[in-house]
Amino acid sequence: MNWDDIRIFLSIARTGQILAAARRLSLNHATVARRLTALEESIGTRLFDRSTSGCVLTDAGNRFFERAERIEAEALAAEADTGGDTPNIQGTVRIGAPDGFGVAYLAPRLGKLTEKHPGLTVQLVPVPRSFSLSRREADIAVTIDRPDTGRLVAGKLVDYALGLYASKAYLATRGEPRSTSDLSAHDLIGYVEDLLYTPSLNYGSEFSKDWNARFEIASALGQTEAVRGGAGIGILHDFIARGDPDLTPVLPELKLRRAYWMVTHESSRPLRHVAAAQKFLRDQVACDRSIFG
After folding, report:
1. Counting Cβ atoms within 10 Å, is residue 230 exposed (0-12), middle (13-18) or buried (19+)?
2. Smallest Cα–Cα separation from 157: which of 145, 148, 167?
3. Which string of b and e fits 65-85 if b means at least 16 CB within 10 Å?
4. Per-residue model confidence as pLDDT tens digits over 61-107
5. What's the pLDDT band for 243 if we cut at 50, 70, 90?
6. What is the CATH number that goes with domain 3-82?
7. DSSP structure class, residue 145
8. CATH class for domain 91-158+259-292?
């Protein structure tokens, strides 16, 4: 058994397809299939159920996957140790984040990271409903819930606040609510309920038991734009809405508190370019902590 075969196995397990793994590894499809067969023969068991739709880990494959990830972690650690004298941070780091934090806050600041590390390429991607660091869909994930399963390393990045906002034009036309009971007489904006990938996004019920959104939008930035356009009252991130001259706080004494978590896979710990990006995120939010409320 050699490391290259294990690397191929891991890529197939993470992508679910031999062809996708071949593309990720820049190898020929037939070569990947042949190396997988050789690995299975060398350990005397079938690791995947192969079909035209993809590859699914067998029970033995799942057990081998856990061991293979530990081998990978050791290999990465050894690589990091031998490259310890290299002064430059190089490589590609992919950061997954919710659109509110990723687009509104992080995207305008990522230039500082690449300016500090010119050899670093940064990819910023939205965090979808189903997301896997184990499958390397990102190197770093910013989440609103702390994960409690998997070989993941999580730490709180920053606490943040949300509040009710409306546009000046909307309030001039419809008036300003004086209590939560007044909200039922207003047009409310919220998430598409059956697309909530975590209960933490069910903000409306925490402001009012009768929160019935007339406009449901499946993204934080989409809700912000709807509120800015005068569609109604919405629950917006303070760090996005507070500095917008077109938005006015409504019932400002009411606030929700949430936290962003920074999560990486255990095997990414030794990677210097991932560590550099993590440090940047921690330092940046520490500098901007006041804007998060």
Report:
1. middle
2. 145
3. beebbeebbeebeeebeeeee
4. 999 988 887 787 777 667 656 655 555 788 889 999 999 999 999 99
5. confident
6. 1.10.10.10
7. S
8. alpha beta
Burial class (CB in 10 A: 0-12, 13-18, 19+), 160: buried
Compute the distance between CA of residue 233 and CA of residue 230 in angstroms, rounded to an integer.
Answer: 8
Distance set, CA 18 to CA 2, 41, 52 (Å) = 19, 17, 10
The pLDDT of residue 30 is: 94
Terminal CA-CA length for the chain: 53
In CATH, the architecture of 160-256 is 3-Layer(aba) Sandwich (3.40)
How many CA atoms does the CB half-sphere of 193 hold within 13 Å? 7
Q: Identify the pLDDT of residue 207.
A: 87
- Provide the strand spans (E) within the chain: 48-51, 54-57, 91-97, 120-126, 140-143, 152-167, 188-190, 215-216, 233-237, 247-250, 256-265
Give mean pLDDT, residues 187-202.
84
Side chain identity, residue 68? A
